[in-house]
Fold these 2 entries.
Entry 1:
Amino acid sequence: MSKTSDIKKRERLQKVLARAGYGSRRELESWIDDGRISINGKKATLGDQVDSADVIRIDGRVVRLPQHRRIKARTILYNKPEGEICSRADPEGRATVFDQLPRLSGARWIAVGRLDINTTGLLLFTTDGELAHRLMHPSSEVPREYAVRVHGNVNDEILTRLSNGVELEDGTAHFESIKEGGGQGANKWFHVVLREGRKREVRRLWESQGVTVTRLIRTRFGPIAMPRHVRPGRWQEVSDAHVALLAELTGLKRYIAADDPVTENKSRVQKKRLHQKSTHRKSSQGKEKSLKPFSRKRRNKGRDYGQ
């Protein structure tokens, strides 16, 4: 059986490369603008479409796209400590979140959103650029939950305004829910949820009411909550079931992580073996010799393509 390419029709260049894990769509669009990507030897431009017959290069190196339609990409969660930035490199030499992540071969980690240097907690990384793009896109409205400690006088009127909507410099914003989390005097904890990821949005909302945020921790992103046992600076693999839930949130139907063709193939083989063993057992009871119905020749193992 011949292998079929992951591209069955012509698609936008940045979408194809993002799906293969070379970066987020936004990042890839900047690479196209910078002239780092070519198609069939010619400089790529925004809007270009490609298919399986095209030769794509990034910085002169040929891009090898996956040869199976279903890709099992990796997704991990990371407990970001205070003091780390979300860039891949920093001219000032500060620590970055990428320093602590596991090394990859033939793929790269893409951060799903960002947290500022003073914010801690849950940060997701994936090798699937299309999944990352959809999770970050405002239309997906993925809920993000934060534990926030504030300093100042917080009354019911302030909480009502934060729930109904406050006008910021980049538009109206609000918390979908606000729950008190304890504290004494002027220092109190709240648990807040919003469905977008504008820059420093949680801090700016509280500051608009004359309240200062003294600590901010992201505790949940969509269906993924930060496990208590994952300490700051540590990471953990996200299960296939949870990745499938993330994909479902964004309407990404092609990415059903729990539906792995390799697993399906193993399941069919196991059922066939059970059936053949049962047939052989019945034949043996009748004192008739039977040929081995199942070849024990080793099957070709499937591969996960993380590019």
Entry 2:
Amino acid sequence: MPVTNRGLLACLAVLGGAWAGPARAQSGDVYAWLERALQAGDLLTYRAQCVAENHDPFTQSAARALKAQFVECCDGPSGRTRTEYMAPPELVNTMVLEDREFIYQVDKKRRIALKQSAAAGSMLPSVEGSRIDLLRRNYSATIAGTRVIAGRECAIVEIMPNADRAGNPWRRLFIDKRTAFPLRIENANGAGLLVNTKAVTSVDYAFRPPEGFFSLPPGTTVKSDPVHRSGALQADASLSAQLGFRPVMPQYVPAGYVFAGAHIIGADGAKAVHLMYFDGLSTISLFEEPTRSRGRAGWAPGGPGAHALSWTSGNLSLTLIGDILPQELVQMRNSMG
């Protein structure tokens, strides 16, 4: 599914909206601002033109960047978002509608919508207590100046790993000082290489959606996503009972990461589990499923800036994905027997 702003911010965990305080405030205030920033999606109504780019982290070549252009409209108080893509060509007819219950990926040309539960579609880790407290234990957030983005003055916030967490990714946010909206986000992997950016090129805060704006186009056929994903679960005996197999848990996880929930993924009668580990900013994913055909284990593409390590153990196929240093993933795998 194409990544909307709401989905992207959820994946980045702390990169949503509302911002308060002067740009020159002391760094100790940044964490309180980030706590309020998590509430942005519930506060803002806007229409924004956006560009998102995935960069090749190994060559850092702009020529190899994958670019998406889209218009994003959000009515925060009602929890509704509409995103329409203008590029690349394969997404031109794609529209994504979200509310607090469902996500619809709409093919406007074919008039077909793929429906998914919003709760099941969320990739936001589930942790006890404050995410900001967890972030603060592993990262340092500071104000790094100001810059004008889309004609708006923004405060630049940098979130860098603490010295004893070297190898973790970093994030840079450009926050509209008056309206609280993040107008640019830069993400780097554990090697410090830029892997993706999202930038707002124009924004209209006076936008008010007309009646029916967030509704499906007339005549659209709705189909349920054949891949089902549960809400967050604990890794206990009940999880094994629902899966029909016992997940293998790593005995080693990188410093600062905590278990952040398990999700059962099902399709055509088959089931897999997605285990998540989170450090306040970055997520490590572990996927496990019964082995269907024993392929060769090794490194596999893990998405922009992320590493993926796949292997088999007994009757299970396993894949680790994370934007940390690859040797940390190897150590996790080796701790699983």
